[in-house]
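Reviewers of the previous submission asked for a worked example of the structure-prediction workflow described in the proposal, so we include one complete record here. The input consisted solely of the amino acid sequence. No template or homolog information was supplied to the procedure at any stage.
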Amino acid sequence: MSKLYHERLVNSKQMLAEAHKNKYAIGHFNINNLEWTKAILEAAQETKTPTIIATSEGAIKYMGGVKAIVGMVNGLLEDLNITVPVALHLDHGQSVEMAKKCIEAGYSSVMFDGSHLPYEENLTKTKDLIKFAEEHEVSVEAEIGSIGGEEDGVVGNGELGDPIQAAEISKTGITMLAAGIGNIHGKYPEWWTGLSFETLDALQKACNMPMVLHGGSGIPQEQVKKAISLGISKINVNTELQLAFRDATRTYIEAKKDLDDKTKGFDPRKLLKPGFEAIKATFVELTGWFGCQGKAK
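From that input alone, the workflow returned the following structure tokens.
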């Protein structure tokens, strides 16, 4: 069998292998609509940055389904003539069936998050997905431990990853491994003390492969860079873009530009533009931190 995704999409194997080898990280950016997707793709092309765009299961429902998303992404890749490597990824897939559905629709990368299951069940289901994904040249992310907080209904208590499990699951054929290292989805609370670099170091030594930092929004820059030096090769960003979009939109509305009938400030293309530009600016800032700008070949 062969790959089902569009020729302009790539899986994430090569970009993550190079990031892991050269100690930088690829940005994973969750998308929510056309503006989100177009902003990220334009910024990636302008900065020559390999990029992973992703949808949670909640975002898939919001945007109408996997076929609608695949059609929009592929259309933008062609019409905007995006030539940098871009992977379309399922974030926190809660079942193997959902991951397979995304692959069949044209996703080039998927995550099966079995961290809510007993470890042995997580391992078995990951192996099942790997077999299907490899037939279609799709990259796979697995998770052990759990990420604290909540994202689109996925709740984790923040258990730290187990190096023994990391060593075992890394041999299944996965491309990347997510593991709890004290990271949290959403805005970080005041009581948060930081990432557990001791845990990350032990996990990396056990699996020796690209690892994923979920809950990347709001982690201090020095901690991000240290995590990259210890084996983090993919950093997930969602909340940071949402906050940038919110702030820019609020500024536009508080200036009452949406009430200006002469300039048609109510036009959604004008109403959403400040948020669109804020997403691009945030992408450029964060990928600068990650070290992946200019890495597209």
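The radius of gyration is 19 Å. We consider this example representative of the routine output the project will generate in years two and three.
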